[in-house]
Amino acid sequence: MSNAPVLDSIQADNKKLFLQFGGQGSPWIKELSKLYSEPSLKDFFEITFSTIAKEVKRANHPSFFDQGFDLKSWLENPDSAPSDDYLCRAAISVPTIMATQVGNYLFLAHNGYTAERLIPLTAGASGHSQGIIAACLIALGKSGEDFLKAYSDFLSFEFWMGFRGQEAYPNFHVSQDLIDKNLANGDKNPAPMVAVIGYNKEELEQRVNQFNKEKNLDEKTSVYISLYNTPDSMILSTMPESLLAFRSHFKAEMDERKAKFVYLKTTAPFHCPFMNSTWPEFKSKDYDYLAFNYKGSDLKVPVYGIYDGKNLQEVEDLKERLFKTVLIEPLYWDKAISPLWTDASISTILDFGPSTVSQKLSGGHLKAKEIEKQSLSASSPKEIKVLLGTKE
């Protein structure tokens, strides 16, 4: 009997999978710690530790890593790990979120969901924010030593993407004054990104444009809609001071319509023009250094872009495209996952986390369109049992 019953079912029904991966703001250390106990992932973790150590040494930036980046000791004893505020720093969380996703993938691959079986049954893939990079790695269709070599290349790329992102916003410590002013509005943990839930696209765009114009804000202080997640849930990115001013300006209206304003666990304003300076910095310092020379033509299945929904198999330079799409360009999740309602062959979504945030975002779009698909997350203990056929 196969231990990949979901693949057996899809194959028998002549259907296909859609693979997706989560992004910034997702908790990761508990998932990665659990994966660390899997004997089959020993080589994966050795590559992870050595790759991160190499890049931290090259970065030589004590203030970003003032509590170190000893991932191995954190996983061996999670209670000794730094606080969540430290672990969510972009320079730390960008590579470790990818490690968690790839660990989830390899765990399934070692339990029947091999690339040789998975890739032919996959119609497409995407990833929420940085998750699109993990989607591209899996879409290469590699296995064994070839996969681990590519993973190391991708992990180094993710490290420098997160590092340059944090470098563009280095003063990420929030003042007590800013914390107090947010608490006065009923908001906790101010950050450079916030979820606004309860407005549609047109309503929020109108308010953002009005606010920026009235306040005469520049590129570094303007409020940007950075992620269009679901029809009534979007993310704003900019300086926390501007987000506080925006919130205060519209708080009475938000309260009246019961809209939510929830800061994300991240330390840089991704997906907006605030990050324009990151590309020239990366291009001059990291582009040629990195052994990341993958092209769209290397992808064995379509990976759909999070900005325009374009199939990345058509892109020549994945390094530039992926960097800009995660740090600078806005995200439109409906464009990335549109095959879920345009490709009738897709019956199942397989999400690799971390957590179930991206799974829920896709579910929001499907619910709005009254479409039902099987959706399984490798981050869910309950759904892992379904994937492995061990559900009682």
What does this structure look like?
By secondary structure, this protein is of the alpha/beta class. It contains 18 helices and nine strands. It has helices spanning 5-12, 29-36, 42-59, 71-76, 84-87, 90-109, 115-118, 131-139, 144-168, 176-184, 201-215, 240-256, 278-285, 318-327, 333-336, 339-342, 357-368, 381-388, and strands at 16-21, 122-127, 193-197, 224-230, 233-237, 260-263, 331-332, 346-351, 374-377. The protein has a five-stranded mixed beta sheet with strand order 6-3-5-4-7. A hairpin with a 2-residue loop joins strand 4 (224-230) and strand 5 (233-237). Helix 2 crosses helix 6 and helix 6 runs parallel beside helix 8.
Brief account:
The protein has 392 residues and is of the alpha/beta class.
Distance between the termini: 16 Å
Q: State the helicity in percent bands.
A: 40-55%
| Widest β-sheet, arrangement of strands | 6-3-5-4-7
The value of Rg in angstroms is 20 Å
Order of helices and strands: HEHHHHHHEHHHEHEEHEHHEHHEHEH
Number of helices: 18
